[in-house]
Amino acid sequence: MLKSLVSIFKPEADDSRPVSSDYEPVSIGDEAQETSLVRVEDRGGKGVYFCFWVLGAGVLLSWNALICTMPLLASYFPEDSPTKASLASWLSTAFCLGNLFFLGSAQRSVGKSSPSPRLHHSLILLFLSSLFITFPTLPILLPILPASLMLPFLLFLTVVLSLATAWLQCAVFALAALWGSQEMLAVMSGQGGIAILVSLVQVGLAVISALHGAASGDEDYSDSQSTLAGIGLWALGSAGAFGCMIAHRWLMRHPDYRIVLAPLTMRGAGLMTGEDGEEQALGKQHGEGATRRLLRKNAALNLAVAYVFVVTLAVFPPVTASITSVQDPPPRLLRPDVFIPLHFLIFNIGDYVGRTYLPAIPALIFTSQPIVLVLSLSRTLFIPLLLICNTPNTNSPIINSDTLFFLIILFFGITNGYIGSLAMILAPSPALNPRVAEEEKDVAGSLAAFCLVAGLAVGSLCSFGVGALVH
């Protein structure tokens, strides 16, 4: 049993040597390309899809745990602290800027080396950092930490999480792009699925705490339950990172794993041997100019996926978490300690539907880059809609209905998941996006992921300005 656990943390040899001539998946010739395409159709399966779903969930696991515990983290600050109201913007900005910086550094090696070692080491860092937040940070350190040190300490932990997430995200999207469009969809679906799971845990604990507090009138019980909920979420994060290690090891033992990584091997061979002009050209395609070339090819798609998350992060959660029930006084299950987690859950359900089910409908797969960009830009309308809900500085909100607010949040989530996934699926797919060559898939996929994170970073910075309008 112990040996089995240790083997999960021990990196497995990444055997990505060229495959046998039976398949010849990467060659400079039409016949070999046809063989490769036939083999690609047989490459997927439920096991592969599920593993990429788990890895996609792991990419956003720490982010979802962080945003769901932001109200708890803010409660550790004194009431008169100016950081208390803006903590969500501080942490989301630190996470997204750190993620952007580390992802940019990781992007340089995409297409030149196997993503597996980076994936494994990032999962170990994610596991250890989540475990540290679970214990002793939440139950022991934060309650006794001086207020002057609390923000730097939380920012440091956030940057560590952003490092692990960035390197994991880069590796997962590169590997999924090499494997196929269904696996890319699995990654996007997993990101939405883990958000629902985290929100369900949070809402369940909030409802239990609210009902018990109403029955006993014990406010201390509510505080202790909030702490336990936070510990539970980060313990879930540790377990999720461990599950991702198992999924990655399963993929490495898949019979087609070496076939998937064969393009990387051929690029390296072309650069090292330089036996003929074609091989040298193959290697040069993945030099420093590859990123600039793909940025031009997928300019509209990359802008679309970035802007989706600029709009989302500008208001979610800094603004949406400040909106409360319009009922005065609100019933016990609509007070802020339940209302706020409930809006997280509704958004995440919509996001999951948009990521998983809408891109699976052929009629909703728009392959025109300008159309995808227009869809992304149209989400700007959600910002004024949310600002006229029951925000703190509003005495008589224009949208004076909790049901209507939850419907807006639902469609906000659906459009976030659908348009974001659509752009991410199109960007690295030669079948849906003829501008991208077969050997550019992994670079195009990780570049789209970089633009996604850039959108998160810009949206987090915008949240300071938008949040100032409601506080």
From TrEMBL:
Record key words, sorted: Membrane, Transmembrane, Transmembrane helix, Transport
Membrane topology: Multi-pass membrane protein
Entry's localization field: Membrane
Keyword Transport listed: yes
Lipoprotein recorded as keyword: no
SUPFAM superfamilies: MFS general substrate transporter
InterPro entries xrefs: Eqnu_transpt, MFS_trans_sf
Residue ranges of the TM segments: 48-73, 85-103, 123-145, 151-180, 192-211, 231-251, 299-319, 370-388, 404-426, 447-470
Pfam families, A to Z: Nucleoside_tran (PF01733)
Record-level Gene Ontology MF annotations: nicotinamide riboside transmembrane transporter activity; nucleobase transmembrane transporter activity
Principal localisation: membrane
A single GO cellular-component term on record: plasma membrane
Domain of life: Eukaryota
PANTHER family referenced in this protein's UniProt entry, alphabetically: EQUILIBRATIVE NUCLEOSIDE TRANSPORTER, EQUILIBRATIVE NUCLEOSIDE TRANSPORTER 1, ISOFORM A
Family affiliation: Belongs to the SLC29A/ENT transporter (TC 2.A.57) family.
Protein name per Swiss-Prot or TrEMBL: Nucleoside transporter-domain-containing protein
Organism annotation: Naematelia encephala
